[in-house]
Amino acid sequence: MSHSKKIMRNSGYTLAYKMLNVVLSFITRKIFLIYLSSELLGLNSLFTDLLGLLNLADMGLGMALQYNLYKPLAEKDNEKVAKLLNAAKKIYNTVGLMMIVVGIILSFFIQYLIKDNPYSLEFIRLVFIINVISNASTYFFAHKRLFLHATEDVYITNIIDSIIFIVSSMAKILVIVFWKNYYLYIIIDVVYSFVSNAIVSYVCDGKYKYLSQYKGYSKNEMKVLGDNMKELIPNKIGAFVFNNTDNTIISAFLGLTMVVYYTNYFTITNQVFLIAPIIAGVVKVSFGNVVQEQKEEKQHMFFLNSFQLVQFFYSSICGVLLFCMLDEFVGFWYGKEYILSLSFLIILTLDFFVHSMYQPLSMLLEVIGDFSVLKKQQLISMTLNLIISIGLITPFGIIGPIVGTLIADIITLIFRIYTVLYVHYNDYCKEYIIKLIKYYCVFLAEYIVCFIICSVISLDITLVSLIIKSVMIFIFVIGINVTIFYNTDEFKYIKNKFVIRR
């Protein structure tokens, strides 16, 4: 099967799984608010952030493993592949055990991260430890998931995860409605994590039997992974600061209730955004194989520019939809009392677009494998993010952390252009920047025009009105994008590869 067909297959299953995840997550969150409490939901969101801290124990092993699998997979060196996985398994088992130990220690300090804590210390500690066990259990099978991603078989994990996720979501809803028991709610997550990963591991072993034929690993495999992990530690810490500190800062300074207000918005934008790196991960594997097979920089850049155009279509459509519809959706789904200020919405959605648009550059950097350049960039970005977020939260409230993230994302975009294009593809750097500026100008024009139109069109907030306005915005934005970029080489390539069936 060609790389383009594998991308289509994997992207299709990935999008289907993500949409299912989004819908069921919103339903579960709504029912949670009705039958339990907003403070408990805020506590759940805080634990998600803290678990991100524990995930630092991974130290970039996943990225390092995938990068080092590209070449032996392309060369069909089964022994090398198996030994790399064995080395990764050894590290991941250690990481899982470390997470449980560190999580138990961290539970004794968790009360200092919650302002006006309404729950007993015994309760929040026990709940946190259960969440830690659920999260740690994924590491005992992580190497098999990463292998399936590297072989462009990510659709297998999506099918398994979808089936188990549907069952676990239904079980959660029943537990909330009939028993109102939070303990059972989080225990279901433990079972979901274990069962899903165990099935993925079993299917992987059956499909790739050669993995079990080679035992152990050499010092070389462990050294290769270890060297790359050292370079990726700042990247992991930076990713944590970007994705897992806002709730903690808001909880410590403003309390659990404000965490709920924030996460009502952030959960939606994050669920939409997470599709971008998932698709980038699918494309990355194929691109990694292309880089191994073709050495011409021109081919690499055309692949990047084509993916960047796809990313722009996705980012602009979602960015404009979120800006115009997010307040209305939050008011409809959670209640008008949960709607935040327009300035918060503007900064949140602009950050969504910026963060989403540099995913292709991040993908290319991972494929190149030049991880050393990430160190300084991540340290600068995450330091500014924390300083600005903490410094602004007292005078500006909930807007502070979002401003910090937006500034850090803009700096990251600049660093990505320098570290990926200027250093490795200098001849094409100027051309890429011009294309990127054009994308941003088109997006801002669509952003402003759609907001003005939606402000003029006044409809009662109902499910029907939300659907009608969303469809109108979608048609308008995609129509403008197609009109402007229809004659570009990238659009023609995408149309021929993925739209026209041959």
Describe it for me?
The chain starts with a helix and ends with a helix. It has 502 residues and is mostly helical. It contains 20 helices and no strands. The radius of gyration is 23 Å and the shape is globular. The chain folds into two domains: 1-229, no CATH class; 245-502, no CATH class.
pLDDT averaged over residues: 83
Strand content: under 5%
What is the radius of gyration?
23 Å
Q: Gap between N and C termini, in Å?
A: 13 Å
Coarse shape = globular
Helix-strand topology string: HHHHHHHHHHHHHHHHHHHH
Main sheet makeup: none
Number of helices: 20
Q: How many structurally independent domains?
A: 2
Uncertain runs with pLDDT below 50, 5 residues or more? none
Helix content: over 70%
- The counted number of beta strands is 0
Based on secondary structure, the structural category is mainly alpha
Can you summarize this structure?
This protein is mainly alpha-helical.
Question: What is the secondary structure topology, with strand pairs?
Answer:
Blueprint: H1 3-35, H2 38-54, H3 61-74, H4 78-106, H5 121-137, H6 142-150, H7 154-179, H8 182-207, H9 219-244, H10 246-254, H11 256-273, H12 275-293, H13 297-333, H14 342-357, H15 359-368, H16 374-396, H17 399-424, H18 429-456, H19 463-485, H20 489-499
Helix pairs in contact: 1-7, 1-12, 2-5, 2-9, 2-10, 2-11, 3-4, 3-6, 3-9, 3-12, 4-5, 4-6, 5-8, 6-8, 7-8, 9-16, 10-11, 10-16, 11-13, 11-14, 12-13, 12-15, 13-14, 13-15, 13-18, 13-19, 13-20, 14-17, 15-17, 16-17, 18-19
